[in-house]
């Protein structure tokens, strides 16, 4: 927080539709009088010592400000390109990915009362990247589960549950099959649960969770679900599907020092530069960011305005079946403020 009472936040506008949806966030924040100054940084990879890396200025900015809002980054297809998203996650050790999915009034889906909160371990598990060929035609891929990373994400899940007023945490696992790896995760979950006597703890098998959630999501509305990396990746997209898709789902990548909030969707190259993009997911990610920063009044105010415009359904973007441009939608939100 600076002398002017404003918080500086790093803004990574991103590729494709990134700059357009970032503009909507900036305009709406100005209209709402949010005490935030944006520090825009470019994360286009540069060549350093023969490796492609994120520019130091971008890393310094996030390190200095602790909080960043990020638009989508396009990962070039082909050999030798590391995913920038993965690089950011590793650079800042963003160990937990938080994905809330709440039904949006006005946007009809099979269920209108979904309100799930899922926390995914973000650094290891099936995505540890350790793979090798044993002999021709036989490959091994290592699922890495460590006490350290499991403890960190599980403790965070219990703390987050308390912060958002839920008193149930459920670990999702396959310890029946992955006896050692998921078994360790589950045992640590049981240990950590003892430190949170006010939070109920239970566990559920992943396949059972999937089946039950798509049959009736309501029993999940009072819980925080926490799980290893791959399960979280898949289950969080399933939850997104329950509320109408990736265009509406926010996320937060939480680290011990810094946190980066981002929309779940990609850079949408097919509609980039045409003023057609829906900025809602990035806006809702920024709301998570405001809540994380303790600026809850501003978060509520902007969120209510967004939900009002979506519920009215008059000024919505093409992906939701409307005709409004990105900026027309943003203007409607500003009016609703
Ligand atoms: P995508 O999410 O960019 O697009 C999928 C479809 O959804 C497209 O038809 C697109 O027009 C639509 N869409 C996405 N966001 C929208 C929005 N806000 N408003 C309206 N429509 C929207 O997925 P993709 O095409 O598989 O990926 C494109 C690029 O994005 C790739 O380079 C990929 O690596 C990258 N990507 C980045 C992230 C990230 O930065 N977190 C996530 C996923 C994909």
From TrEMBL:
Keyword Cytoplasm in annotation: no
Provenance organism: Rhizodiscina lignyota
A single BP term in Gene Ontology: isocitrate metabolic process
Catalytic activity, reaction form: D-threo-isocitrate + NAD(+) = 2-oxoglutarate + CO2 + NADH
Key words of the record: Magnesium, Metal-binding, NAD, Oxidoreductase, Transit peptide
Keyword Magnesium: yes
Family under the similarity heading: Belongs to the isocitrate and isopropylmalate dehydrogenases family.
A GO molecular function held by the record: NAD binding
UniProt xrefs under NCBIfam families: mito_nad_idh
Protein name in the entry: Isocitrate dehydrogenase [NAD] subunit 2, mitochondrial
């Amino acid at each position: 927080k600076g002398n002017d009472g404003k918080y500086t936040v790093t803004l990574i506008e991103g590729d494709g539709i990134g700059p357009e949806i970032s503009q909507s966030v900036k305009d709406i924040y100005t209209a709402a009088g949010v005490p935030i100054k944006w520090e825009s940084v470019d994360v286009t990879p540069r060549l350093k010592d023969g490796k492609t890396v994120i520019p130091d200025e971008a890393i310094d900015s996030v390190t200095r400000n602790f909080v960043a809002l990020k638009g989508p980054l396009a990962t070039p297809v082909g050999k030798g390109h590391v995913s920038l998203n993965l690089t950011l996650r590793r650079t800042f050790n963003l160990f937990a990915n938080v994905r809330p999915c709440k039904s949006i009034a006005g946007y009809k889906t099979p269920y209108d009362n979904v309100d799930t909160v899922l926390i995914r371990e973000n650094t290891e598990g099936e995505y540890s990247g350790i793979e090798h060929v044993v002999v021709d035609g036989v490959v091994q891929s290592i699922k890495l589960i460590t006490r350290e990373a499991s403890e960190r994400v599980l403790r965070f899940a219990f703390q987050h549950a308390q912060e958002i007023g839920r008193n149930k945490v459920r670990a999702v696992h396959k310890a029946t099959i992955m006896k050692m790896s998921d078994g360790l995760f589950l045992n640590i979950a049981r240990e950590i649960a003892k430190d949170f006597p006010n939070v109920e703890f239970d566990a559920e098998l992943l396949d059972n969770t999937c089946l039950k959630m798509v049959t009736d999501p309501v029993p999940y509305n009072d819980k925080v679900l926490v799980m290893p990396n791959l399960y979280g990746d898949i289950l969080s997209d399933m939850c997104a599907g329950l509320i109408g898709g990736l265009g509406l789902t926010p996320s937060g990548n939480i680290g011990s020092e810094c946190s980066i909030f981002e929309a779940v969707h990609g850079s949408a190259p097919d509609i980039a530069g045409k003023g057609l993009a829906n900025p809602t997911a990035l806006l809702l990610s920024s709301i998570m960011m405001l809540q994380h920063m303790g600026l809850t009044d501003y978060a509520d105010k902007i969120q209510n305005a967004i939900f009002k415009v979506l519920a009215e359904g008059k000024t919505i973007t093409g992906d939701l079946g409307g005709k409004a441009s990105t900026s027309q939608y943003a203007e409607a939100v500003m009016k609703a403020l």
